[in-house]
Amino acid sequence: MAKEVYDIVIVGGGPAGMTAGIYAGRAHLKACVLEGMSPGGQMFTTSVIENYPGFEIIDGPALAQAMEEQVRKWDVEILRKHVTGVKRQSDLFEVMTLGDEVISGKTVILAAGSKPRKLEVPGEAEFAGRGVSYCATCDGAFFRGKNVAVIGGGDSAVEESLYLTRFVNRVTIVHRRDQLRASRHLQERAFADPKIEFLWDSEVEAIEGEQAVEQLRVKNRKTEAVTALPVDGIFIYIGTLPNTDFLRGVVELDPWGYVVAGEDTRTSEPGIFAAGDIRTKELQQIVTAVADGAVAVMAAEKYLWEQGL
Ligand code: NAP
After folding, report:
1. Beta-bridge mates of residue 108
2. Looking at residues 278-294, what average pLDDT do you find?
3. pTM greater than the 0.85 cutoff
4. Measured between alpha carbons, how far is residue 20 from residues 57, 82, 187 in Å?
5. Can you list the domains of the chain with their CATH numbers?
6. What's the 151 CA to ligand 1 centre distance in angstroms?
7. How far is CA 237 from CA 45, 182, 245, in A?
8. Is the pLDDT of residue 198 over 80?
9. Who lines ligand 1 at CB under 6 A?
10. Which residue numbers are catalytic?
11. Which of 1, 14, 201, 217 has its CA 20 to 30 A from that of 119?
């Protein structure tokens, strides 16, 4: 039996990948979405979303599920596959997956997104799942009535701190500068919240405890004083890193590892397109990711037509 060849293999099941699935389905292209181990991508680990048009407020997992259901309305397969490599094979691309299954496509849309950046301090790996978390939605409820720290000063750190106040007794936001990067309205809400405290100009040097996290060793960057911050948990929100390890030598990456691609989603390799957080872009948002997903399908369709595929 001849091996199945997709018009588009979409790598990643976050907002960019799911939107690409919807647009490919509506265009009657034969497509699959390889959603990896984390369906919904980072949306799934986001507590609340307040800036996706049409929803004043929606839980991340609910929006992820709604997008997935919309893809399933079309003749597009959603496969739980972790991609390990992409290779050109004359006119086609081979997409390698864990378990050695190879999926063939005439085009590929890379929408594998990004993953949480690690602090890289002693104790972080040791206490993962025992007080160290990168997902307030997943783990917040385990810290009911406890004291936690959130590391970072961006939108994610502040948004997830506000979410954590539903459960915890106290959130200490530990930030390396004396000013937040987060948007003004999030800052105002955090400053007004009696459960949120701030530790400015501070860097976590180590995460310490016996069986689980008990305290952070924190250094003040101005005074160099090192103090202990007793906490039961630490949520790390210091930005993200692109999921592009499997793409080295396949498409051009920028010095930070993002796929080099403009608003037209075209990469250095004709036939491969990049959508969402995986590509170089000014604004990493769900709305910009879904826009990329749509643009990438249009670009892939044009490529198929131009190549006579
Ligand atoms: P981000 O905006 O890059 O912020 C990362 C924060 O972590 C910064 O405050 C940074 O400090 C700090 N940081 C970075 N490396 C660090 C380290 N090694 N040690 C300690 N602190 C470190 O990341 P993000 O908050 O995850 O947001 C990513 C993107 O998603 C942004 O474009 C953001 O706007 C968007 N987002 C939007 C929303 C929303 O609209 N509601 C929600 C979540 C995310 P400095 O400030 O000193 O650089």
Report:
1. 9, 272
2. 95
3. yes
4. 24, 18, 34
5. 5-116+240-306 (3.50.50.60), 132-236 (3.50.50.60)
6. 10
7. 12, 12, 21
8. yes
9. 51, 119, 151-157, 159, 176-177, 181, 237-240, 283-285
10. 135, 138-139
11. 14
